[in-house]
Automatic annotation (TrEMBL), chains A, B:
Lineage: Bacteria, Bacillati, Bacillota, Bacilli, Bacillales
Superkingdom of the organism of origin: Bacteria
Alphabetical keyword list: Manganese
Protein's recorded name: Nucleoid-structuring protein H-NS
Keyword Manganese among UniProt keywords: yes
InterPro entries to which the protein is assigned, alphabetical: 2-IPM_HCS-like, Aldolase_TIM, PYR_CT
Any one of the GO BP annotations: L-leucine biosynthetic process
Organism, as annotated: Cohnella lubricantis
Length: 322, 322
């Protein structure tokens, strides 16, 4: 069933290239990215996050990554020479971005810069986001791993953001361990702690709750909704863009172009690369842990030994978590 | 996150063999079914639905089906010679069951007989379920395809059941088109229309909402929750048993045995047989239609032509629905 009015405040931020790049080391062709941009634009999706704008100088071991790992403005302008309605976004991580890489917005094809941080790094995230804001960008602060943050630490982070000029703050379920009741709790907490801010949500699908969590947030007034086409994103992946288009039913949204993109690219890509609901990712979601141990397990010869993996994670003395 | 108290009223009915049989024509080995029974029993799952108890005389074209399609009590007693805590269930369809096939419960390994019907066949379902009740079984009436029933017809069906001796009534999302808000509406409607009845819920995963819908119903007091291991069920499949075990967190539930069953059987089976989130099933869910057109499409050479399928379903004059 669909709902034609209650989601009119929502906007979709498609993260296929940025979060999906964590799956295939950003090995997307220019044609792929161009097709995705055209499809999202036709579908009415408001934002496309086309990669990271971190600095390769600050991130070792990433030399073989595709160009969406360290976006270059000139390159991006060649890929998308004519921007249409869909705006372009990039993510930066606190500690990995060189602020000198961020040109004034008038000289960049990017519209939105999102700053990802852990709650403990909120002060630094505010500093960066404020700077990018001054350079003309829309900005957000995305607080990661909320299921592993002490409530008092989160309250303090929200109080700091509340006094800053940052416009949008994201609830990020990095481990895919939250359910709709948790989302309701967090949205209420963010609302109480943040006066006059807009909210966003980024979910992962470890427990097959990414869409339900996103819809729960949207029903509560959260405005920016992250999603990826066919769910492509790290480990269990994200809320699916095609499902969000179908469920939000805003009159400007059109499901069909994204179905075409899935047909042309995503099904074949999913046969070569792995993401989505797999038991090791479900296990880390259930245990409220970062998926890195599950990703390593899926890359090992024991990849389908679920009991072995479960036993190691639930008897941690035999398997250090990090 | 988990919740340790609010689901204490819930019981799980695992439908892997019955609904999963719709995927592989009930071609499960005896060893598979025995392993599943042991795993569910160790996991603390209350019911295992081990097949259909329809009559082959009343269902043409099913000659090649496996033995779980038309359960035989003697055969079932050989498969599971020693019943443990997990009770056994069978489903019958109105119009396809010969009531003479249902022995008194004292002579059968079955504990629960569930009668599936469309709302228009409720009178017949009540008659059958009452008869099986008199023969000693626990019984339920499962009203299918609720997203396609006129509200007045459903109200009339509930009024009839309300006056019957049937104990449990199921909300069945046959098309996988409902979301948590729809479930809330239906649970409230069933509660209003059915005095002193217990409720159950059976979901499909076309929109990746099967778990969220099931949890929503459970939070509202619905007691019997259907699920299948690794989601195996017709088309997009069902709510996953392993996820329900993880989320309900009842002290008697144990996730580990079902993870073992998935490792031993389900991953290999999923490579040979197809179910789960696939775009044609998502499309029929979005359009609130029976998945039969999508199942036929997936069996055709055009199986990955999603735009073609979408265009045909949304311009029905070119593609009759049934």
């Amino acid at each position: 069933m669909t709902e034609q009015r209650k989601f009119s405040h929502c906007q979709i931020v498609d993260c296929t290239i940025r979060d999906g790049g964590l799956v295939n080391n950003w090995d997307f062709s220019v044609e792929f990215v161009q097709d995705l941009y055209e499809s999202l634009n036709e579908a009415g999706v408001e934002y496309m996050e086309v990669g990271y704008k971190n600095s390769p100088k600050l991130l070792k071991g990433a030399e073989n990554a595709g160009p969406w790992r360290f976006l270059n403005d000139d390159f991006l302008r060649k890929v998308i020479p004519e921007k249409k309605k869909t705006k372009l976004s990039a993510l930066v991580d606190v500690g990995r971005v060189d602020e000198n890489d961020i040109l004034p917005r008038s000289e960049s094809p990017l519209d939105l810069i999102r700053v990802a941080c852990y709650a403990r790094d909120t002060a630094k995230a505010i500093e960066l986001a404020t700077l990018f804001n001054e350079r003309g960008y829309e900005t957000t602060i995305n607080i990661m791993a909320l299921s592993n943050v002490m409530d008092n630490e989160l309250s303090e982070a929200l109080a700091m953001i509340s006094e800053s000029p940052i416009d949008v703050v994201y609830i990020v379920d990095s481990y895919g361990s939250l359910d709709p009741e948790d989302i309701r709790y967090l949205v209420e907490k963010f609302r109480r702690g943040l006066k006059n801010k807009r909210l966003g949500v980024h979910t992962h699908n470890n427990m097959q709750l990414a869409l339900a969590n996103t819809l729960t947030a949207a029903e509560m007034g959260v405005e920016l909704l992250d999603a990826s086409v066919y769910g492509m994103g790290r480990a269990a992946g994200n809320c699916h863009t095609e499902l969000l288009l179908a469920k939000l039913s805003k009159s400007k949204y059109n499901l069909r172009p994204v179905l075409g993109m899935i047909e042309r690219y995503m099904v074949g890509l999913r046969e070569r690369e792995e993401w989505g609901y797999l038991i090791p990712y479900m296990i880390t979601g259930v245990l409220d842990e970062h998926p890195r141990s599950a990703m390593a397990w899926r890359a090992s010869p024991e990849r389908d030994e679920y009991l072995n993996f479960y036993d190691r994670l639930t008897t941690p003395e035999t398997f250090p978590k990090s």
